[in-house]
């Protein structure tokens, strides 16, 4: 059973190149993407919604034209091994998820999914073997429709220069950019800016 146009071994190699390692979430995610794509009508222009930030978004980016950069990959962090592919215009599609009730024959996959052991305690070779052998038998598909907020292109509106830092930002964020409003993931200290 292929993952997209690739054999399992080929996809594993591509995963190492793209993600840095053959993570179980991408290997299983590749199967999920393939199953969801097969369930969409031929020729559907689709977008993707993944329900975890870990690994699964990379499988979508590897096997579909959906990416974070082109805004066709939506990531919500519900911590679930689930993804949906949906028609860009009407929002109808399919959700593919790992069905824990189907993991009986695949104990190492259950250990991994349920985090019953630390990563170091898991048997990674056995886990990968189970992912390859299980195919889509551990997954379920459900028809779905995304909320209208996911449909259509969203413009950030006019762009202005921040009175605090002088950088451009979407006007909709307020009188100053989010950075100058205190929403920053890092701390900067005074120093000369280098021109590149």
CATH topology of the largest domain: 60s Ribosomal Protein L30, Chain: A
How do the helices and strands follow one another from N- to C-terminus? HHEHEEEHHEEE
Architecture of the largest domain, according to CATH? Answer: 2-Layer Sandwich
Q: How many helices in DSSP terms?
A: 5
In quaternary terms, these chains amount to single chain
**Percent in strands:** 15-25%
Please give a structural write-up.
The protein has helices spanning 8-19, 24-39, 56-63, 107-113, 124-134; strands at residues 46-50, 73-75, 82-87, 92-98, 139-145, 159-161, 168-170. The chain is an alpha+beta fold and 196 residues long. The protein has 2 domains: 8-150, 60s Ribosomal Protein L30, Chain: A; 156-196, Wheat Germ Agglutinin (Isolectin 2), domain 1 (2-Layer Sandwich). A 5-stranded mixed beta sheet has the order 2-1-3-4-5, covered by helices on one side. Helix 2 (24-39) crosses helix 3 (56-63). It is globular, with a radius of gyration of 20 Å. The mean pLDDT is 92.
Give me some keywords for this one:
2 domains, alpha+beta, 196 residues, Wheat Germ Agglutinin (Isolectin 2), domain 1, 5 helices
Summarize the structure.
Helix content is 28%, strand content 17%. It has 196 residues and is an alpha+beta fold.
Helix-strand blueprint:
Elements (H helix, E strand, L loop, with lengths): L7 H12 L4 H16 L6 E5 L5 H8 L9 E3 L6 E6 L4 E7 L8 H7 L10 H11 L4 E7 L13 E3 L6 E3 L26
Helix pairs in contact: 2-3
């Amino acid at each position: 059973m292929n993952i997209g146009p690739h054999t399992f071994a080929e996809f594993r190699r591509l995963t190492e190149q793209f993600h840095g390692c053959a993570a179980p979430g991408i290997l299983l995610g590749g199967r999920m993407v393939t199953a969801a794509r097969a369930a969409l009508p031929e020729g559907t222009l689709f977008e993707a919604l993944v329900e975890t930030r870990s690994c699964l978004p990379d499988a979508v980016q590897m096997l579909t034209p959906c990416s974070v950069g082109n805004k066709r990959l939506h990531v919500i962090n519900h911590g679930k091994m689930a993804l949906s592919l949906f028609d860009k215009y009407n929002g109808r599609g399919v959700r593919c998820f790992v069905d824990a009730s189907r993991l009986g024959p695949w104990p190492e996959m259950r250990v991994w999914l349920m985090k019953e052991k630390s990563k170091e305690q898991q048997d990674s070779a056995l886990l990968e073997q189970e992912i390859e052998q299980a195919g889509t038998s551990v997954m379920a598909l459900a028809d779905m429709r995304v909320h209208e907020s996911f449909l259509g292109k969203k413009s950030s509106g006019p762009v202005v220069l921040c009175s605090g830092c002088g950088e451009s930002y979407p006007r909709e964020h307020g009188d100053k950019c989010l950075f100058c409003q205190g929403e920053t993931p890092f701390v900067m200290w005074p120093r000369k800016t280098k021109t590149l």
